[in-house]
From TrEMBL:
Protein name: Integrase catalytic domain-containing protein
Family matches, as InterPro entries: Integrase_cat-core
Keyword entries, A-Z: Plasmid
Biological process per Gene Ontology, one example term: DNA integration
PANTHER family: TRANSPOSASE RV3428C-RELATED
Stretches assigned to the Integrase catalytic domain: 152-245
Native source species: Rhodococcus oxybenzonivorans
PROSITE patterns per UniProt: INTEGRASE
Amino acid sequence: MAFREVNVNEVKEVLRVWLGVPGSRPPGLRTIAAHCGVDRKTARRYVEAAQAAGLQRSDGVEALDDGLIGAVIEAVRPARPSGHGSAWDRLLGFEDQITAWVAGEGNHPPLTITKIETLLARQGCVVPYRTLHRFATERCGFGRKDTTVRIVDGDPGSECQIDFGYLGYLTDPETGRRRKVHALIFTAVYSRHMFVWLTYSQTLAAVIAGCEAAWTFFGGVFKVLIPDNMKAVVAEADAVNPRLS
């Protein structure tokens, strides 16, 4: 059985409608349920819990204070000694299998939650998708990414990252026509201070012109320039032996 959270506003609205309007006929549970968007069983549970807490139909809406609403919620809230519902408890018996499916077995790739849900259903374990997703994430390693290794930044002024970014269209003052403009972005690794050079092309000549302007802006030349596989600089990317233009 899947549990739903008890909404304070929902409880208060059901009880407000149940109290009715003075001088008019009190509505029935069917009308209350339709008005509040809940089923009749839920409306009945709220009303019965409120009556047990002392609410009467002759009371006004001022009787729906925090104490009464709290008592109703405490009465209708499902008991969860472990903090989870019965669906979670059923999944505990399949934890090892779900962990194996999430990690992948042999030549079989990791399975999606949708596929795991289908396989569990074939074994008679039918649970809500959201519960399965939360269970697989918290206990079985689903969605867990590799640990990020932090790289120590170099000394100030030693490294600079450079890359192109699309900026938009600008009117070329020489030709009068609109042209695509690229931004050659220089970012100092240590300080993250940036310089942007605008260019109409992504050529080696444009990169050299941008570098000359950047060195003037920064007041010096960096020891290491990291071009991030730009085609204008890196003709063939390789993790060990890249071929430069």
